[in-house]
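Dear Dr. H.,

I hope your travels went smoothly. While you were away I took the liberty of generating a structure for the chain from your last submission, since the lab meeting agenda had it listed for discussion. I wanted you to have the full record in hand beforehand rather than looking at slides cold. The sequence, exactly as received, is reproduced here:
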Amino acid sequence: MVNQLVKRGVIPLDASGQIDPLIADKAYLAALHPGYEHARHARLPLDDAAETPGAGGVAVAEDVSGVAVGGDKLNGMTPYKIHATKQKQFQALLAELDYEERAARLVDVKQVEVEAFQAFREVRDGILNVADRIAGVVASVSSEADISQTERQEKIHTILTRELTEVLEGISDAIRQP
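The corresponding predicted structure, in token form, is as follows:
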């Protein structure tokens, strides 16, 4: 199998025709790894690894002997390991978000929008209904002939304040209840 890899050019020979085991291992891993092409082109949200571009934009890492090893190796890691590390980080972030949601620290935006809409509708409806409820009372106070204008204003003010306070407190109580 090694001879086949040498013939195909996967494993390089040194000047004396010998195989350097360190370079051969790295070249073999780079050529055989199942995630090689995928990791080479994949970009994850956490893709901020410092790459050293080589010829043609391909990242090149140098091994301990100073000889450049082709492929997308970064800091001695194979492309698969880089991708797997990024994928694990991404999965950890998703797990953290899931935990935060289950711990009730995060809520769905749509759910908040629906509840806010319902709360504002209750406020609007409550305030608009005040006029219907107190129109008769205010009309009767306005038609009383035996009270002064100041007393009439005070009675209407008291009625309005009482009704609005009652409506707003009712809405506040309804909103606080889960």
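Two observations you may find useful: The chain has two domains: 2-102, 109-176. Residues 109-143 form the longest helix (35 residues).

With kind regards,
E. W.
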